[in-house]
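Progress note, sequence design subtask.
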């Protein structure tokens, strides 16, 4: 996973998430002794690495992640 350069500022975003999903992320972050924000950033990087091959992802309505 690429390391962020210390002099490169982070970009703040606001997202609306399902309360149960946030709760699960928060619990995992607490168990892992990291912040929820850190865990979400890490998850985003892993997602982007999995989809770095230029193919579109399936975003049709009703398609849930298993």
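Output:
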């Amino acid at each position: 996973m690429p390391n962020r350069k210390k002099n490169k500022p982070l970009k703040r975003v606001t997202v609306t998430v399902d309360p149960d999903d946030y709760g699960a992320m928060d619990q995992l972050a607490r168990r892992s002794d990291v912040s929820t924000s850190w865990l979400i950033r890490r998850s985003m990087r892993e997602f982007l690495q999995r989809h770095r091959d230029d193919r579109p992802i399936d975003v049709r309505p009703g398609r849930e992640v298993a």
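The mean pLDDT is 87. Work on this subtask will continue into the next period as scheduled.
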